[in-house]
Amino acid sequence: MSLLEVRDLHVTYANGAQAVRGVDLTVDAGQKLGIAGESGCGKSTLALALLRLLPAGSKVTGQILLDGEDVLAMKWGRLRAVRWAGASIVFQGAMHSLNAVHRIGDQIAEPIRLHRTTPPERVKARVRELLQQVGLPASRAKAYPHELSGGQRQRVMIAMALACAPDLIIADEPTTALDVMIQAQILRLIEELVARENLGLIMISHDLAVLADTCDRLTVMYAGRVVEDGPARQVYDDARHPYGKALSAAFPRIGDPASRFAPQGLPGDPPDPSDLPSGCTFHPRCPVALDSCASEDQELVDAGASWQAACVHVKAADAPAATVGSER
Ligand code: ADP
């Protein structure tokens, strides 16, 4: 059984915005899945939906199976436990997530005390252990958030995410607010922890280069859908979907926050999820769109070994192989 299996997930916000439209994905223990796409493509909505953290009034359908248990069907008490001990989220911009008036040791201890994952007399030792795990001296437990650098604060956020020993970590743009050197250190730290603890990782970024460097698999989202999914390096080097191609061309270098909003060579913006274009939602920006793309939507089709893309050109290229497959 997979650690996480998402089936046909749809999220519609109260204002009618269809932010996630039929996403399927799987993460196994020890696997690192990257989710890429420009701002507004539905990545954070997907991450928040996984732990039911969306604003009230959002409509969510489909299945989110965490260790086989459907998150969407969980009662409140069970959900609260799962949010720390099953899966936890690391957000970008640690300064906003940490409480300015509490020492960081107390903030790391809070979920541990709340969920009683460690006996009360061992909580302090556990906090020290977590700080050391993320490369901070145990003495920093006494510090307030403003006494730490941006990179150190992000390490604290990671320690908090690890506090109740979850099986899955969801990291949403965990390094975007940091400069390039620190970004690389934090990415290495996440990789090490995931390998050591055999965790599943979902890392979300607008930056394909960061994900290709860190993850095993790469999923590219556009307008709330998965448009490409495959082995990370291969998708980065040789994307089959024109959107994946444009994204990888936009990020030649790791860590360029400016390109988040305007990838080079890709005109326009992702569509408004309350007013989606007909046919393939990428067609208005697509350099290789055919007339038919304005009316015909595309499903994911095989684009290589464990590699899929939703594009009419991939479908055409794969047609003979697909026919052979269906005859078997
Ligand atoms: P990403 O993480 O890829 O930047 P988001 O998931 O944040 O994308 O947003 C996807 C779309 O949903 C965007 O068009 C955004 O404006 C919209 N959206 C996000 N939050 C809300 C909300 N609370 N209500 C309505 N629309 C929202």
What are the salient characteristics of this protein?
328 residues, alpha/beta, Rossmann fold, eight-stranded mixed β-sheet, 11 helices, disordered C terminus, binds adenosine-5'-diphosphate
CATH homology superfamily name of the domain at 4-78 and 216-323: P-loop containing nucleotide triphosphate hydrolases
Separation, N- and C-terminal Cα atoms? 26 Å
Which kinds of small molecule does this entry bind, naming each only once?
adenosine-5'-diphosphate
What summary fits the major beta sheet?
Answer: 8 strands, mixed
Rough outline: globular
Portion in beta strands: 15-25%
What is the C-level CATH assignment of the domain at 4-78 and 216-323? Alpha Beta
User: Which segments are poorly predicted (pLDDT under 50) over 5 or more consecutive residues?
Assistant: 321-328
Any overview of this molecule?
- It is a single chain.
- This protein is an alpha/beta fold and 328 residues long.
- The chain has a domain of 183 residues: Rossmann fold (3-Layer(aba) Sandwich), CATH 3.40.50.300.
- Helix content is 35%, strand content 21%.
- It contains 11 helices and 12 strands.
- The strands form 2 sheets. Strands 6-7-8-3-9-10-12-11 form an 8-stranded mixed beta sheet, sandwiched between helices. A 4-stranded antiparallel beta sheet has the order 2-1-4-5, covered by helices on one side.
- Helix 4 crosses helix 5 and helix 6 runs parallel beside helix 7.
- The chain is globular.
- The C terminus is likely disordered.
- The chain binds adenosine-5'-diphosphate (ADP).
- Adenosine-5'-diphosphate binds next to helix 1.
